[in-house]
Amino acid sequence: MLRLCVVFICLLYGVKTDPQEACPAFTALSFGNALIGTDLKVKLLLYTRQNPTCAEELHSRASEYLNVTKKTTFIIHGYRLTGSAPVWIPDLVHLLLSVEDMNVIVVDWNHGATTLIYSYASRKCKRVAEILKKLIDEMLIDGASLDSIHMIGVSLGAHISGFVGQMFDGTLGRITGLDPAGPLYRGMAPSERLDPTDAQFVDVIHSDTDGLGYGEALGHIDFYPNGGTDQPGCPLTIFSGLQYFKCDHQRSVFLFLSSLTQSCNITTYPCDSYRNYRNGKCTSCESFWPKPCPILGYYAYEWKSSLTQQSHPVTSMFFDTADKEPFCIYHYLVDIVTWNKNTRRGTLSIMLADEDGRKAESKVNPPQLCRYDLVLTENTQKTFKPIPC
Ligand SMILES: *[C@@H]1O[C@H](CO)[C@@H](O)[C@H](O)[C@H]1NC(C)=O
Ligand SMILES: *[C@@H]1O[C@H](CO)[C@@H](O)[C@H](O)[C@H]1NC(C)=O
Predict the structure, then answer these.
(1) What is the reported pLDDT for 306?
(2) CATH 3.40.50.1820 region(s) of the chain?
(3) Class of the 20-319 domain?
């Protein structure tokens, strides 16, 4: 009862505070809102290099900052259990504006996405898509081009992007799906989820395929960090609270953010399974020749032409990452052939040294294992991953 009263007071207070905010911000709601449930209300927040920190809320075609001759990137979040604003949005806006002079539109549908019941939020996705379709139609009248529209959708937001793309018959420039939502979407027909026909180029990062994410490929290129199920550094038990549920899922977003800072590039390898990748069977990127292996994230579009030309429309990419920013690790596959078949016992020591003299050493104990993967992270942290036969 007390909690309800508190929620009520907050609501009253919220109504009373200034209706003309100086800088419109992402709607912050509380767990109380999730308990009651929220109706759909979409706020469109525009950021540009002229107003990088103070958003302009788009209401009608009259906008001070929107320049439709520039590229426009939409950021669309997903389900919100607690009503809080997604922590990664300011970083994503900032980094996008730092790499390119563009319009960044944050699609705030927190009113709608915030509910205890996931299916209520999921049901609102098509209505969000219709609102975005209307905005894009207006932008087209003002001279925008569909080619220069990029939608970055997280979780349910990925499917919303797919719905918008479908309304434009796949002519949007690009859709990036960051761990597209799995629950209620697994096994659905392509028209009911994100799929490669929704945009000229669809790239997807799958980071929680055994939880909140979607397992099968949904784009022209599908990236599966660490196999796509469990991410390093994420808690494995429920005792870690909410992090247990969202850490793997959110990792897709942090990997994408990291790709924008470009402190290092994450190289990815085409493979039919993570197991085969781990067994060193997928080290070739010949199919992308003359380009090297694709890199993860924002710059993946540089591989667009080879990916969209291939007769086989789906390419799954595998790679391992470190547990934190900048996530890049270097892989060394050590293949050992012994000549003397009679020698059975002994240890093997492998040392890797870089140009600066930093070293990583690992001892190998061969009998039970076939292959060893020596991983030297950027700060010479060594990990050694034996692979069973
Ligand atoms: C809009 O952007 C284009 C291309 O960057 C630029 O040439 C033009 O001056 C801009 N228009 C306004 C009104 O700022
Ligand atoms: C990463 O890749 C991009 C795009 O291919 C390239 O422009 C950049 O120089 C690379 N950065 C590093 C640190 O290798």
Answers:
(1) 86
(2) 20-319
(3) alpha beta
